[in-house]
Design brief:
Helix content is 43%, strand content 25%. It is of the alpha+beta class. Helix 2 (23-43) crosses helix 5 (154-169) and helix 5 (154-169) runs antiparallel to helix 6. 23% of the residues are buried.
Length: 207
Amino acid sequence: MASALTYSSLLTDLQSYFERSDSPFIDQLPRFVMMAENRISAEAKPLGFLRTVDSTLNGNTLVKPARWRRTKSMSIVVGGQRKFLKDREFEYCVSYWPDDAATAAPEFYADMDYEHFFIAPTPNAAYPLRMQYYERPVPLDETNQTNWLTQYAPQVLLYACLMEAAPWLKVSERLPEFQSLYQAALGAITKEDSERLIDGSAFVKVQ
């Protein structure tokens, strides 16, 4: 039977790699996993992290989705046509539309802070909204044994965890080895996603 990576088996693997089973090390394992997940989310944008959500835009501030990391696109429907909003700096949007009370069809969006977007102009109607964004996968723990990483990129997750654990264990001499394995695995899934995008955009003429 094929073996699948889970949160529990990942913790066991980390103990095996370092040949450590003492309580101080075991107590740190959930932290290493959390830090590894954050590292991967910050350094990679695989298709598995991409989400599309539909909602309604009816104000000049918009709450970002849970576990949001980066926005890919934001669009509204105006007169039956999809219109993509342009990404701008917050200061640009405020300067472009300084009067919040004035309304018009939105043109721009900006990161207001880590939890909110700012929209300019202030919408003059409730517009159907579609957002594509990269998210941090649902964090692993005892109650959530699997996520996209354990299913589709277990080697990336494992090597990232080894990288996080090495400094704590004071075995920094092994860090280049783990970094090399991590970069190779990360490069492989990035290449795979790039090839999917190219295949999906190719036009094949049938004779």
